[in-house]
Amino acid sequence: MRLNTLILAVAALLLAGTGCQKVITLDLKTSNAQLVIEGNLADDGQPCQVSVTTSTDYYNPSTFAPVSGATVTLADNAGGLETLRQNAAGQYVGRTLRGVPGRTYTLRVETDGAAYVAASTLPAPVVAFDNLSTQLSAIGSNIQAVVKYTDPVGLGNSYLFRQYRNGRLNNTIFLQNDKFTDGNAITLALRTAGGPTNDPNDLNKLVQGDSLRVEMQNVDPGVYEYFRTLNL
């Protein structure tokens, strides 16, 4: 599946930890909650979806509390404007605006007396899969998805891949751009570190008999850089 996707990342808290042979406890001060806003819009005929959450401190990096009651609006450079409705805690969805390649969208979120704004342009359709296959990992027995595509000539193309096991999304973000591969035929293995068992709930694991779906999204360079930074 190929999508041209707009991701509007308004604010994000980046947390990372490192491991070593000796475990120590650092005297890290707890931090104030940071607002994390992410909007998604693609050229798939679906409305914009926005997540508004707050982060916690260093020792709870994966905990995000939903923010309800925010005012979320989306506008485009063709005169379109809508206010998204809240359909779940911290989740907001549009009604009328759809993703159109080449169009610029501006997301505005107001909460707790502050306003947050981001703008991004939905990339034009530029590439499709040449082939999707699987291979065994070099170490262990995990099956990995392998994507083949041809990057169009001309720098500036950025891609994001998402993998689904039996219809369930793996949260790993796979990124690629054409900085060093402009105009080339690309073979990209989506490497995941699946566990040693065939646990059906391990979304990093693929085994014989699973259904596999890979989504390839064309994203603008700002979105690529946002996710690249998160992966550091």
Plain-language structure description:
The chain is mainly beta and 232 residues long. It has 2 domains: 2-121, Immunoglobulin-like (Sandwich); 129-230, Immunoglobulin-like (Sandwich). The protein contains 1 helix and 17 strands. It has one helix at 221-230; strands at residues 2-11, 35-42, 49-55, 64-66, 71-76, 81-83, 85-88, 91-93, 104-111, 114-121, 129-136, 143-150, 158-165, 168-169, 174-177, 185-190, 212-219. Strands 1, 2, 3, 4, 7, 8, 13, 14, 15 and 17 form a 10-stranded mixed beta sheet that branches. The radius of gyration is 19 Å and the shape is globular.
Key structural traits:
single chain, four-stranded antiparallel beta sheet, Immunoglobulin-like, ten-stranded mixed beta sheet, 17 strands, 4% helix, 2 domains, 232 residues, mainly beta
Strand residue content: 35-45%
Distance between the termini: 27 Å
Low-pLDDT residue intervals, each spanning 5 or more residues: 9-26
CATH class of the largest domain: Mainly Beta
Q: Supply the number of helical segments.
A: 1
Gyration radius, to the nearest Å?
Answer: 19 Å
Q: SSE order in H/E notation?
A: EEEEEEEEEEEEEEEEEH
Number of strands: 17
Mean pLDDT: 81
The CATH topology of the largest domain is Immunoglobulin-like
Class from secondary-structure proportions: mainly beta
CATH architecture of the largest domain: Sandwich
Question: Major β-sheet, in short?
Answer: 10 strands, mixed
Q: What overall geometry do the principal axes of the alpha carbons give?
A: globular
Q: State the share of residues found in helices, binned by percent.
A: under 10%
Give the total of domains: 2
